[in-house]
């Protein structure tokens, strides 16, 4: 049975929870910079390490999926996220890795999310490095300042000779400013009968001089199925100074067992909270 119904307007993209990769940049398993042209030359990983780090992406905001709950969006002012896929012949720990520039370094880590342990971030699945045995794919994620203009940014393994530099596109994205968004309006009914669709409409504006992808998670409870909130990912490319409007209907059939005041919340590039009174199903239904 379909747990919710989505109406998409004006080419706006909705995902109940996003699973696809949001990226278009990656690095080879191991590389060194070419000082003549700024490109990277791929090399094989060290046979002793037996580690492959691929599909390195830099994003100003990312989606995540968790073991309990539906996950959501990481989007914090002044930060950006670097995520990679990792494959190894041995057991690894996240603490075996660092993200480095010529003058600084960062340990792996992400902000606290909504739900349980993450199993995917920015479309990179398999759980975080260190939560699975050797030979299984996993992801490695860093939270770093944004923007970050740096010399020779790279992921380093405990073995000092094993590094994975960012591509030219990755370095450019790392140094690029992040977009910023403001919530112009959020329209939702104050009451709804259980089983009836709940229309929601919101409009955001890109307040920056940077084109960017708006990302936010809209949470709505599904207590009749599980004690968590259903997350609908709202995403769309929005040019600088432009607006974007999202319109959707939320399924209320599984929201609550009894009449109750139910929270609707939005978390991501914008934040909002509303209370909706869910009543018993009307007699004609």
List its traits.
1 helix; 3% helix; mainly beta; six-stranded mixed β-sheet; disordered N terminus; four-stranded antiparallel β-sheet
Task: Give the domain tally.
Answer: 2
Radius of gyration: 21 Å
Structural class based on helices, strands and sheet pairing: mainly beta
- Topology as a string of helices (H) and strands (E): EEEEEEEEEEEEEEHEEEEEEEE
Instruction: Determine the strand fraction and express it as a percent band.
Output: over 45%
Mean pLDDT: 83
Spatial order of the strands forming the largest sheet: 1-19-18-21-22-16
The coarse overall form would be: flat
- The unreliable regions are 1-11, 18-48
Percent helix: under 10%
Number of distinct beta strands: 22
Region (Disordered): 21-51
SSE topology sketch:
Elements: E1 13-16, E2 30-33, E3 40-43, E4 51-59, E5 62-66, E6 72-74, E7 79-88, E8 97-100, E9 105-106, E10 118-121, E11 124-125, E12 138-145, E13 154-157, E14 163-165, H1 168-175, E15 181-188, E16 191-193, E17 198-206, E18 212-221, E19 229-238, E20 243-250, E21 260-268, E22 272-279
Parallel strand pairs: 16-22
Antiparallel strand pairs: 1-19, 2-3, 4-7, 5-6, 5-10, 7-12, 8-9, 8-13, 10-11, 13-14, 15-17, 17-20, 18-19, 18-21, 21-22
């Amino acid at each position: 049975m379909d747990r919710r119904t989505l109406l998409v307007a004006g080419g706006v993209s909705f995902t109940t929870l996003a699973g696809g990769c949001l990226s278009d940049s990656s690095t080879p398993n191991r590389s060194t910079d070419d000082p003549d042209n700024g490109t990277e030359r791929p090399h094989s990983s060290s046979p002793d390490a037996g580690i492959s780090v691929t599909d390195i992406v830099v994003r100003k905001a990312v989606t995540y999926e968790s073991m309990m709950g539906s996950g959501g969006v990481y989007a914090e002012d002044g930060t950006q996220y670097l995520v990679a896929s990792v494959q190894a012949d041995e057991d690894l720990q996240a603490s075996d890795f660092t993200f480095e520039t010529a003058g600084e370094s960062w340990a792996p880590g992400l902000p606290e999310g909504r739900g349980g342990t993450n199993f995917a971030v920015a479309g990179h699945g398999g759980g975080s490095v260190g939560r699975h045995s050797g030979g299984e794919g996993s992801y490695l994620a860093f939270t770093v300042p944004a923007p970050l203009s740096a010399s020779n940014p790279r992921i380093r393994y405990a073995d000092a000779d094993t590094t994975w530099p960012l591509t030219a596109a990755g370095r450019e994205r790392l140094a690029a400013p992040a977009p910023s968004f403001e919530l112009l309006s959020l329209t939702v009914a104050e009451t709804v009968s259980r089983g009836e669709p709940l229309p929601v409409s919101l409009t955001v504006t890109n307040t920056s001089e940077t084109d960017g992808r708006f990302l936010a998670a809209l949470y709505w409870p599904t207590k009749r199925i599980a004690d968590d909130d259903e997350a609908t990912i709202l995403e769309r490319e929005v040019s600088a100074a432009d607006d974007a409007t999202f319109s959707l209907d939320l399924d209320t059939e599984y929201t609550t067992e009894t009449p109750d005041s139910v929270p609707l919340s939005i978390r991501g590039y914008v934040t909002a909270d509303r209370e909706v009174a869910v009543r018993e199903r009307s007699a004609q239904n």
